[in-house]
Give the backbone structure.
Amino acid sequence: MIESNFRELAVAHRDEIISVRRHLHQYPELGFREQLTSAFVADALTRLGLSVRQGVAGTGVVALLETGRPGPCLAVRADMDALPLTEATGLPFASQHDGVMHACCHDGHMAMVLGAARMLTAAREELCGTVKFIFQPAEEMLGGARHMVEAGVLESPRVDGIVGLHLWPDLATGRFGVRPGTVMASMDHVDITVHGKAGHGAAPHQGVDAILAAAHVLAALQALVSRESDPAEPVVLSMGSIRGGSLPNIIADRVEIRGTVRAVSSEAREHMQRRIAALAEAVAGGLNARAEVAYELGYPPTVNDPGLIRRAEASLLNLFGQEAVAPLDRSPMTSEDMAFYMEQVPGAFLLVGAKGAGEGNYPLHHPQMTIDERALEYGAAFLAEFARDFLRTR
Ligand SMILES: [Zn+2]
Ligand SMILES: [Zn+2]
């Protein structure tokens, strides 16, 4: 059998992949409200002849490419939601939906997975087992992936491995950011309420100053990063909001501090969770105030399976040569709900370079963020190649 050349096929499908991305870019939708988007995706998958399920975890879409031959099941995942931003790129295909923009490239993720679905469907004779295409809602903050897992997308057939991509405007087009182990940080939220006792500013000894206690709590918490965390393993604690007090001459009885906590290992994450509460309570207590700490678990770290990353590298070498592999020396401190699948099954999550000559000047989530659309054909070719490797060699 002559094998499909996915690199050449992706180039041949370039215009279609780009037009899919541009269409989706024009009609972005927020998390769990991806009605038009999921209908478009389901229609494209149905036209390929795949069996398609809609309405999974709300707006999710799952499609199966069944070869009829026994073998493993590989899931290929894309996210569908956009961000509450007003686009300022000035592109001819800019968002038509006021205040909503695909500023995190999820339009491109869908276009790449649909491109791969098309190539793999045409090449089904070269595969055994099953490819499961997962289009999930609400990656941004809402954890759509967790809802998909709870809805059973990793079962029937049971998924043996999962692959996903994130377009990356910081990395040159044609290169893939690859990292065994942690590739995205965890993301949790912490709310600290410091309770004091109101009083007259002229008689501080009769009250308990929640503002002073909160200031000491804030400063002390950074010691968890600088003194208790392994310097070789990044941890971030950013307190982005503080509110309290009313007038300059009144002792405040209540201050609220809110922040985000990021770590690259579960151990560091658990350490921060435990110690933020203990330290805030102790410091506030030492000043006669009281701290109440609510720690909300967000996304776990996204941890690549070393074996699957070796296979991904082999697929990249095969397709594009050594140049395509860009080893990441550290994990970005951004996070991904892809982590929820990868807690359950081995996974590979790679970054796809999308920085062309004029692109990449703005980061993800920026209203002027643009990508080099040539990145899409690289991503689609990789997904198809990786799927064939996975479903052939296991
Ligand atoms: Zn994002
Ligand atoms: Zn994203």
Notes: Residues 266-286 form the longest helix (21 residues). The chain has a mean pLDDT of 96.
